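Q: Two folds, back to back.
A: First:
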Amino acid sequence: MHTRRIGDVEVSAIGLGAMPMSIEGRPDEARSLATLHAALDAGVTLIDTADAYHRDAHEVGHNETLIAKALASHDRGKDVLVATKGGHLRPGDGSWTLDGSPRYLKEACEASLRRLGVEAIGLYQFHRPDPKVPYAESVGAIRDLLDEGKIRMAGISNADPQQIRQAQEILGGRLVSVQNQFSPAFRSSEPELELCDGLGIAFLPWSPLGGISRASELGSAYAPFARVADAHGVSPQRVCLAWMLAKSPVVVPIPGASRPETILDSLAAADLELSSEELAQLDAV
């Protein structure tokens, strides 16, 4: 498995986004655990989750609990960096709400610590800016958690360039990651990717294949990805992840999966080398 870095931690070049195993349309627990174990067997050492990755109101943290169970039952579980998030909520009616208050973020972190069964969270990320709370106050809570040793590394998600710079300042230069949406269908985070490249901060594209409902359509929606995939005899999804990896050494995609074969295909992207001509074709989409 090829590796990259998040802060001072070496992780697999491609991580696993675990959200599909806990929200609407999720598989049964046995298949989810099989998917997580297949990823671990293949060398994945980065798993992304959040307390809000659940379906029903009474099961906050479903995804974190699932991951903790998978790691505890695998001999490589201790080698994994678990990245979780706080600041997003799901009332249970399918909607998403926000709470970026320092009080809530600190309570959410404590709850995540209990569910994951760890003394300190490897990477804790502020999930999404809350317009009702000054951004500096939210990130200040993340800084406090870092100073207190409740989390080992700090990141932010769904941030713009100004917020990245502000977070880096508030955290005293200790911001290690930015997790933003980025895919062939969603290219507006390229300025954030370029900023992270310049600052040496890991950039974690979420929904890198276009999201749960659209990932299977990537090749039909974007012809260049299908053409390059045909030339290499691989899936368009594998080409997509290889294209992202080629953009910068700070990029660490976290494709979602709920089946072993899906994450295994994604992981193979780290071994796929694309020519400069092919990359130019994909960039032009």
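A: Second:
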Amino acid sequence: MKKVVLLAVLMVSAAVAALAQEGRGFYIKPAGSYFIKVTPVEFPNVGELQPRDRVFNINPLTGAQTLVSEEAITGSFGQGWRAGLTGGFRFSPVVAFEMGVNYFQSERNTMARQTGYNANNGNVLLSVHSSGQVKALDLTPTLVFHVPTSKNFRPYLKIGAVVPVYGYLEIKTNVNDQTGTIASEINPALRAVELTREERIKPRPTIGFLGAAGFSVPIGKNISFFSEVEYRNVSVSSKEKEVRKFEGTGTTLVGTKVPITMNDLPTAQRYTDYHKKIDQNSNVPGNANYDPNKRGDDLRSYINIGGLGMNVGLKIGF
């Protein structure tokens, strides 16, 4: 009986040792993924534009507006494509450490829209549309916990952090104003304007969280196919903004067409620093010390670039 028990213990020990030997080592994992939004929220303001889809009629004689409909615009910049390369080391049949480098590009989202119709004939007199897209590069240090098994289906769980190292929110705004409302703010001599504006908002440093469940299946020597369901929660706040494009055509009060360029945009509107708090000393319009020739100030806003996604790729061992 003792010999049988001893033999069983030796066989189990040998199997575990063989599995451990097989599991240890370095590997890389090229992958692609697509994420969907999980917790859509109201987008931040685009300058003075609130995240609303607003439709209204305009009296062409008085300029008075009559609301037709208004709807809050919600969404998430976490929806989009990712491509990444991960390097890892498996310490044992159970535990591994991975470090991933991922490039992300979100879907383009409408952030604000206004449409004003002539109350008499239904022609569009004012159209404003702002849309945003996030592009980012991040690092993902994670711990991976495998289920030790000799079967081809090999499940695992992983948990870790998301550390964005580069990225920005790009906002494009198209304006067609035949009422003079926006045109006169650019230049009091204008009664109409068609304009394209592009700006980039850079983020403050942040750290997010990720968790995933997946499996791998061997398809060749030292090569496996893997698939994961991954959840990310990454909240990012704004640091600074630069308007990179500001061009179009304006119409003067006498009907002359004139070009609109970056020179028509004061420094305070071209460059913005975001803060947790602004006060009477901040460089914002309306304050006594406002200087249009200096960088402007504004309250910081937040977006989420997390979501729920599916990763697929190859695991290549060495």
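Q: And?
A: The longest strand covers residues 154-177.
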